[in-house]
Amino acid sequence: MSNTEADPAELLCRERPGEGVTVLTPRDVPLGGPRAIRVRRTLPQRQRSLIGAWCFADHYGPKDVSESGGMDVAPHPHTGLQTASWLFSGEIEHRDSIGTRAMVRPGELNLMTAGHGIAHSEMSTPDTSTLHGVQLWIALPDTHRDTARDFRHYAPPLVELPGATAHVFLGSLAGTTSPVPAFTPLLGAELSVEPGATLALDVDPAFEHGVLQDIGSVTVAGAALATGELAYLAPGPGRLDLMNSGAEPARVLLLGGTPFTEELVMWWNFVGRSHEEIAEYREAWQAQADRFGQVEGYEGSTAWLPAPTLPQVRIKPRRNPA
After folding, report:
1. What b-and-e string marks burial along 256-290, b requiring 16 or more CB atoms within 10 Å of the CB?
2. What confidence category does residue 47 fall into, taking pLDDT thresholds of 50, 70 and 90?
3. Whose CA is closest to 54, among 224, 170, 181?
4. Which of 62, 259, 271, 314 is the most buried (most CB within 10 A)?
5. Predicted confidence (pLDDT) at residue 207 exceeds the cutoff of 80
6. Is the pTM of this model over 0.85?
7. 163 with 194: CB under 8 angstroms?
8. CA angle at residue 118 from 116 to 124, to 5 degrees?
């Protein structure tokens, strides 16, 4: 998915009751091309740019797209990252410059590796009346950020837990491990918690974790979350406690990983290490260079998305708090 904001503005970050929990509050931004949809963006922000290698988190829907025509994101580029698409409802067609044509469906992971450079498009299918999901980016470490383009699809099995269920799409949790390889230690899982249930999860104490609220009423280590908010927990604890305090089922995404210590420069759809690199990526995309390849078969509203104008000041690296 294309980030239409060249320089994401600051979001809100505040402490809430709950030991060691910081709640990140998103803001509403447009995403995509002519048929832009509104999303709730939690990462990145000044107070916290990453959780593990997770460097971007957009949560959208449920949105009725039966009359608007749905999602239509023309071919656009990426570098230095992976995109992880996860849907709760709806269906999206993905095409990329490897030649991949794949469907993004609820409960199935589509993981695209940009590496040195890739282009892709996204369109919701004609039968999709409601879109609801998340778009996530994973920063690639310096040793792998120029790796070859790649695409993986994985439908994780349903894991039964006391008072809850899980789909583990990256990493390991609750005795199950995703076969999808990662370039840094990562965790990604969807958790559904029954009304009134409390879920205690054994987690890697070397990981920092984020719990992204989707539906229902969830508290994380005593901190209550609203829709689209993300609870951050630093490394250290080996257990994560979730409670559904409501009368309806609740659903969250659990993201985790070892702290990512490399400095990143993020702008538009590019992840690099310097302002000069970002300028180079932009110039290559505007010239439709071979670096990104061509997306075949896209039949949307425009041939490709041009890059925004670079800011007048140098783009600075994004850092997490010490």
Report:
1. bbeebeeebbbbbbbbbeebebbbebbebbeeeee
2. confident
3. 170
4. 271
5. yes
6. yes
7. yes
8. 155
